From TrEMBL:
Residue ranges that the Swiss-Prot or TrEMBL entry lists as coiled coil: none
GO molecular function: copper ion binding
Annotated HMA domain residues: 2-67
Keyword Metal-binding attributed: yes
Pfam families xrefs: HMA
GO biological process, one term: copper ion transport
Protein name (Swiss-Prot/TrEMBL): Copper ion binding protein
Organism in which the protein naturally occurs: Actinopolyspora alba
Length: 72
């Protein structure tokens, strides 16, 4: 199991949160997505970690951008 946290910019309401959660959740390896509207922090749990490229693409699909990427 791998957990990664990054920041997403532009989310303003729970609808934004749900969109980001849905797109990231569609990535095949992802088992859980947590999004904090207040901080913009997104925590993704997956089997072996996801690439920044995959996260970027999913977040952009939802209409937002990854502001800060860090892998833990
Ligand atoms: Cu919104």
């Amino acid at each position: 199991m791998s957990t990664q946290t990054f920041k997403v910019a532009g989310m303003t309401c729970q609808h934004c949160v749900a969109s980001v959660q849905e797109e990231l959740g569609e990535l095949p390896e992802v088992t859980n997505v947590e999004v904090s509207l207040d901080s913009g922090d997104v925590t993704v749990t997956s089997e072996n970690g996801i690439s920044k490229e995959a996260a970027d693409a999913a977040v952009q699909e939802a209409g937002y951008t990854v502001a800060e990427w860090s892998r833990t």
